[in-house]
Every structure is written in C-alpha cells, then in structure tokens.
C-alpha cells in the first residue's frame, strides 16, 4: 500500500505531539546536549509561527547505520540538521556504444526539514524517503508539498562533476511562505557503502561527504553530510535504450553535522 505525501504530513503533525524518549547524553562538564541546545529552532528565521511549533531536542537522535558502516562523525562535531531529499540522479550516455556504462552527472533535489520529526518520532521519520519516492504526485526536482512540520530547508545540486552543493539559505517563491537560513557549502564524497539488502532494487549507495573548501569550512555551519536511507536513483547497467542525458528519480535522508556554535537558527 502506498501513502501520499498528504497522508504523511498528517501523520507527521500527529507524531510531533508524542516525543520520543532516549537516555540523555552529557559532556565532560556534566551539562546535557539538550540543555545546551534547548528550544533549537529548525524552522529558520523566516517564520515565527513555524518556529513556535518546530523547536525540539536533537541531542538523543541516533543516525541509522548501513551493514557496512560509513566512517563515523568527526570528533567534536554534533548533529546540525536533518533533511529528506527528493529529486533526480543525473546520467549521460555514449550513444555510439550500447554496452557503455552510464556516467554519473550529479543530482538535483529539494530538501525538506525533517529534524524535529526525527527527534519526536524516528520510526516514522526513517520512512520519509520511501514515502517521498513513492508519491508520484510530487513534481521533481523543485516542488514538494510542505506544512509547518515539514518546511523546505533548501536545495541540493552539483556545481561540477565532483562538487555536491547544499544551499540551505533559501527563500520561498510565489505562494510559498517558507524561508530557511541554515548556511550553505560545497562538499566532496569521501566514502560510500551499498544500501542495505532490504532497500528497493536500484537504490544509490549511502555516502559521507566532507566540506570541499577546508579554508572556508568555518564559514559554513555544517562540515560533514551523510546521505542515508536512499531509495531509487541508480542507473541501468548499460546505455542500451537510453538518451544521451537522462534522470532517475530518487529520495534520501541527508544528515548534516558541524562544530557546535554559540548562536542557533
């Protein structure tokens, strides 16, 4: 049975009313992460109404692991943001050779804020990518229905074949009222692992990405990004029957980590 985005958003609204409880973590000072980051506003600076509804404790959120785990989060980094991406993986083909392997040509995706939903109802949140992928009413790569619990965080795209860019400083267009102010930066892949065996066939690998411009890393609020819980997006095995340029729809979760900061969004 497939669930529409509208059904998911209703479930998300209900789920946020029941916080998910886990054991508190404390640092060497004895202060808990949740105390330090209490009432963190993940709705961005653009919506005071959303800010009131989307404050949450992210200290206890645990990132899912693949059977062959990706490298751990760097020491001193903490969770900054979680988004669900819905868009396309892009490929090119040599039409003169039907047996050629499609070449990756980046990706484009809209990122939806799932931080507080994950904090309050992780089981539901970890199904978001699957639901987003299955809902064919969603227009990719730019438009995803949102409400006060799932605001658009920003956009993901490539500036060249090896540079993944995450722009989480965005303003709504037309009738959209969302606004995010979470920072932005260029990233490079440093590690990959296959999606779990229970993922749908043709799901792209899970990834860890690091900031590409280390000299400018301190200007970005996040320095490491994990792509996990991927659904779809993998290219066919050969170029037979394909066009010179083509796209494969996908969805995934993106987990952003960075150095703790005194100010919060």
TrEMBL record:
The keyword Signal applies. Keywords: Signal. The keyword Signal applies. Pfam families: DUF3455 (PF11937). Residues 1-17 form the signal peptide. Residues 25-46 are annotated as: Disordered. Coiled coil: none annotated. This is Malate dehydrogenase. It comes from Cercospora zeae-maydis SCOH1-5.
């Amino acid at each position: 049975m497939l669930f529409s985005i509208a059904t998911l958003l209703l479930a998300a609204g209900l789920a946020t009313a029941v916080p998910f409880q886990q054991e508190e973590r404390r640092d060497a000072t004895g202060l808990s992460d949740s105390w330090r980051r209490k009432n963190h506003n993940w709705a961005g600076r653009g919506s005071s109404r959303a800010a009131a509804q989307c404050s949450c404790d992210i200290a206890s959120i645990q990132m899912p692991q693949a059977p062959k785990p990706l490298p751990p989060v760097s020491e001193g980094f903490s969770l900054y943001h979680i988004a669900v991406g819905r868009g396309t993986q892009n490929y090119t083909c040599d039409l003169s050779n039907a047996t050629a392997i499609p070449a990756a040509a980046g990706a484009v995706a809209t990122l939806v804020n799932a931080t507080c939903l994950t904090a309050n109802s992780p089981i539901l949140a970890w199904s978001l990518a699957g639901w987003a992928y299955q809902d064919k009413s969603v227009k990719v790569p730019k438009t995803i229905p949102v409400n006060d619990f799932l605001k658009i965080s920003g956009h993901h795209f490539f500036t060249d074949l090896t540079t993944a860019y995450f722009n989480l400083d965005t303003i709504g267009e037309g009738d959209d009222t969302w606004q995010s102010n979470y920072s932005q930066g260029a990233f490079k892949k440093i590690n990959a692992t296959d999606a779990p065996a229970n993922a749908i066939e043709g799901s792209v690998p899970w990834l860890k990405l690091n900031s590409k411009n280390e000299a400018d890393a301190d200007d970005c609020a996040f320095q490491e990004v994990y792509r996990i819980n991927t659904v779809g997006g993998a290219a066919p095995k050969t170029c037979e029957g394909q066009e010179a340029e083509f796209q494969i729809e996908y969805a995934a979760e993106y987990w952003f980590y960075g150095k703790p900061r005194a100010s919060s969004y």
